[in-house]
């Protein structure tokens, strides 16, 4: 398994790489980065590693900004000196959450979980190739989102979501009563977790639910302009390339 280490403390990064080399012969460190910007650049210019050991607090922001800027397809093991990020880590799809200083026992547990998930994926692929039952299982879409409001954690059912949209490099979830919350998912990650019967991605920066769309009007350059409830602060436009698919979905 190939691994990427995302850590802004050089000594901690070197120590983790050495521990992996000495104790996990099947894990090869393919690279190391120390910031959000460097990690996004690395992920977009290299094949996705099997595992990313990701420190939460980096030199230019927290690691959740990475998920907003690019699609992360690797298994994530969060590493941090603080336990306050645990919920956000698991919301982002983290396999494990390790508190520093990282013990060999905890690291072994996390790597084993990554192996198990990798092996489960391989078995599913074999079943699909043989025409087994794995392919016939319906996809599982996210039914509930955990969002933060100050110190509170609020569960939001997918059925109550009106739309998701991007604003100032953040992705927001808007519910039927107009409340808005920031979510730690990229638009690509959101799209894959939502039921396509109920949600449609109208552009790079917006995904709408069926019940939020109140009317549609023609706009410039072959696009469509949506009127939604609750009202959005920015124009919601269906890109020209998605107009036909959107109208078919809406119908």
From TrEMBL:
Pfam annotation, one family: Response_reg
Signal peptide span: none
UniProt-recorded Gene Ontology molecular function terms: DNA binding; phosphorelay response regulator activity
Modified residue annotations for 4-aspartylphosphate: 55
Record keywords, A-Z: Phosphoprotein
Top-level division of the source organism's lineage: Bacteria
Span of domain Response regulatory: 2-115
SMART domains named among the record's database cross-references: LytTR, REC
Boundaries of every HTH LytTR-type domain copy: 149-251
Keyword Phosphoprotein assigned: yes
Stored InterPro entries: CheY-like_superfamily, LytR-like, LytTR_DNA-bd_dom, Sig_transdc_resp-reg_receiver
PANTHER family for this protein: STAGE 0 SPORULATION PROTEIN A HOMOLOG (PTHR37299:SF1), TRANSCRIPTIONAL REGULATOR-RELATED (PTHR37299)
Descriptive protein name: Response regulator transcription factor
Organism in which the protein naturally occurs: Candidatus Cryptobacteroides avistercoris
